[in-house]
């Protein structure tokens, strides 16, 4: 379908607005969980399901999006996803009990799970490979700016208003995007009478769902918990069966032949490591700030804000740089910044200043801005157009799994090391108070966990050195 530049701009504005609201919705609750525990009189393990449940629904839906994009039009999918987001937000805003709130959250997740793979596929159809970096960078601004303002916005609402305004405030904006979509959104992709492989859907749901649940539960329940062990084992076995079925199928639900393209496979490995680092830092730094140093959730959110805002504004810039210079110089620059930022928190103490941590986080976010969106562009550019929807679905699935695994691993390292340090400190200082013991153990445990993240950063740098030096062609070839 031939669209004018004006049509493309209007189309992208509507899609980016939907993407921004979807991402903002996902991250608003992160610092509101303790307030919701008090409001509904539930435990930390129970309230965590608002995040875990959202991630599970999102994770099991993503592998099906490639089929949905073949079967339904761009308009149908986008408007449906925004309707799910709208209905879920209304249910959450009106929730009378925790079960109702969780139900609304799950419905929101259905909408959010469709939007990102849809965005990536639309870009592959609308823009040639030499322009995708700039467009991806603009989308990156929306994707990164939403979680940048979410902790501060959420902290303000929780402190001065009712938690219901986290959802009430979103609904009119979602409704406006739905109206704009009906008015301006045009179909981009071509639909086919694709058949849904029910067995593959069941296998992917059980497999990815169990892996996500197992790893997300490991941080709180421990790796020796029977439920954690069984769900991870079942998830891996069923996911392996799913992969074999896809490789043998003539019309797979998720086409794994995307891994035949070396650059896509390479970016997938880097994607795994970067996502683990990014998610782990988002969990670990607030733990250090709140448990180790006694800062409030709002203060922790404000510390993260400058770096995230800089990350968002740099995203369009690095997108244009990718179009000009290619992936390798950007990835190496970004990873050097990440390594410096991890090195700087390997020996954090109770006297490490707030401003030092803010500057360190800004350096980390500058590094991530050189990698996150160019990483998606580099991987998808190497694929032929017919594999674009499968490539974006694989990318999103990788991010979901890596985020859960990275969080679980870093929380495990933190917990083990904090427990070990607490034991040592209690033996060395018998008169130490329980509060100070817990705070010091948390600080030292956080410092040790950052060593693991530094190692992951070096591994990612090694992979980045093998990336092509120039922009990647969309026919599956690359030149350096």
TrEMBL record:
<feature type="transmembrane region" description="Helical">
    <location>
        <begin position="264"/>
        <end position="289"/>
    </location>
</feature>
<feature type="transmembrane region" description="Helical">
    <location>
        <begin position="401"/>
        <end position="419"/>
    </location>
</feature>
<dbReference type="GO" id="GO:0005886">
    <property type="term" value="C:plasma membrane"/>
</dbReference>
<keyword id="KW-1133">Transmembrane helix</keyword>
<feature type="transmembrane region" description="Helical">
    <location>
        <begin position="227"/>
        <end position="244"/>
    </location>
</feature>
<feature type="transmembrane region" description="Helical">
    <location>
        <begin position="106"/>
        <end position="127"/>
    </location>
</feature>
<feature type="transmembrane region" description="Helical">
    <location>
        <begin position="295"/>
        <end position="314"/>
    </location>
</feature>
<keyword id="KW-0472">Membrane</keyword>
<dbReference type="InterPro" id="IPR004638">
    <property type="entry name" value="EmrB-like"/>
</dbReference>
<feature type="transmembrane region" description="Helical">
    <location>
        <begin position="198"/>
        <end position="215"/>
    </location>
</feature>
<keyword id="KW-1003">Cell membrane</keyword>
<feature type="transmembrane region" description="Helical">
    <location>
        <begin position="164"/>
        <end position="186"/>
    </location>
</feature>
<feature type="transmembrane region" description="Helical">
    <location>
        <begin position="357"/>
        <end position="380"/>
    </location>
</feature>
<comment type="similarity">
    <text>Belongs to the major facilitator superfamily. EmrB family.</text>
</comment>
<feature type="domain" description="Major facilitator superfamily (MFS) profile">
    <location>
        <begin position="11"/>
        <end position="472"/>
    </location>
</feature>
<feature type="transmembrane region" description="Helical">
    <location>
        <begin position="139"/>
        <end position="158"/>
    </location>
</feature>
<feature type="transmembrane region" description="Helical">
    <location>
        <begin position="81"/>
        <end position="100"/>
    </location>
</feature>
<feature type="transmembrane region" description="Helical">
    <location>
        <begin position="326"/>
        <end position="345"/>
    </location>
</feature>
<dbReference type="InterPro" id="IPR036259">
    <property type="entry name" value="MFS_trans_sf"/>
</dbReference>
<keyword id="KW-0812">Transmembrane</keyword>
<protein>
    <submittedName>
        <fullName>MFS transporter</fullName>
    </submittedName>
</protein>
<dbReference type="InterPro" id="IPR020846">
    <property type="entry name" value="MFS_dom"/>
</dbReference>
<feature type="transmembrane region" description="Helical">
    <location>
        <begin position="49"/>
        <end position="69"/>
    </location>
</feature>
<dbReference type="GO" id="GO:0022857">
    <property type="term" value="F:transmembrane transporter activity"/>
</dbReference>
<feature type="transmembrane region" description="Helical">
    <location>
        <begin position="449"/>
        <end position="467"/>
    </location>
</feature>
<keyword id="KW-0813">Transport</keyword>
<dbReference type="Pfam" id="PF07690">
    <property type="entry name" value="MFS_1"/>
</dbReference>
<dbReference type="InterPro" id="IPR011701">
    <property type="entry name" value="MFS"/>
</dbReference>
């Amino acid at each position: 379908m031939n669209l004018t530049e004006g049509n493309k701009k209007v189309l992208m504005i509507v899609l980016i607005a939907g993407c921004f609201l979807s991402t903002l919705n996902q991250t608003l609750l992160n610092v509101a969980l303790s307030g919701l525990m008090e409001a509904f009189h539930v435990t930390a393990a129970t309230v965590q399901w608002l995040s875990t449940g959202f991630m599970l629904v999102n994770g099991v839906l993503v592998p099906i999006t490639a089929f949905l994009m073949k079967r339904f039009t761009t308009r149908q999918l986008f408007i449906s996803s925004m309707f799910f987001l709208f209905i879920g937000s209304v249910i959450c805003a009106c929730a009378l009990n925790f079960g109702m709130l969780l139900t609304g959250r799950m419905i929101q997740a259905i909408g959010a799970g469709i939007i990102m793979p849809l965005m990536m596929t639309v870009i592959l159809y609308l823009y040639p490979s030499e322009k995708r970096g700039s467009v991806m960078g603009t989308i990156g601004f929306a994707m990164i700016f939403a979680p940048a303002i979410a902790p501060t916005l959420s902290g303000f609402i929780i402190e001065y208003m009712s938690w219901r305004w986290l959802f009430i405030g979103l609904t009119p904006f979602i409704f406006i995007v739905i109206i704009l979509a009906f008015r301006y959104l045009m179909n981009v992709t071509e639909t086919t009478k694709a058949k849904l492989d029910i067995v593959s859907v069941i296998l992917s749901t059980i497999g990815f769902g169990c892996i996500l649940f197992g790893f997300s539960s490991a941080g709180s329940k421990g790796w020796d918990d029977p439920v954690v062990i069984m769900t991870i084992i079942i998830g891996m076995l069923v996911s392996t069966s799913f992969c074999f079925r896809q490789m043998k199928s003539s019309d797979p639900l998720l086409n794994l032949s995307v891994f035949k393209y070396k650059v896509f496979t390479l970016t997938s490995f880097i994607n795994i490591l970067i996502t683990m680092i990014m998610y782990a830092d988002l969990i670990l730094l607030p733990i250090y700030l709140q448990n180790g140093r006694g800062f409030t959730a709002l203060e922790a959110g404000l510390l993260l804000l400058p770096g995230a805002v800089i990350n968002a504004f740099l995203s369009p810039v690095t997108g244009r740089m990718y179009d000009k210079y290619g992936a390798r110089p950007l990835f190496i620059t970004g990873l050097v910044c990440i390594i410096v930022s991890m090195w700087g928190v390997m020996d954090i103490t109770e006297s490490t200043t707030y401003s030092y941590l803010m500057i360190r986080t800004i350096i980390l976010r500058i590094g991530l801005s050189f990698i996150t969106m160019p990483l998606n562009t580099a991987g998808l550019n190497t694929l032929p157009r017919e594999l674009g929807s499968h490539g974006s679905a694989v990318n999103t699935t990788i991010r979901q799994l890596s985020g859960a695994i990275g969080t679980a691993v870093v929380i495990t390292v933190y917990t083990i090391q904090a427990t070990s340090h607490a034991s040592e400190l209690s033996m060395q200082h018998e008169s130490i108070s329980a509060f100070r013991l817990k705070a010091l153990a948390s600080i030292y445990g956080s410092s040790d966990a950052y060593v693991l993240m530094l190692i992951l950063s070096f591994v990612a740098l090694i992979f980045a050195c093998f990336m092509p030096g120039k922009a990647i062609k969309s026919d599956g070839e690359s030149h350096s």
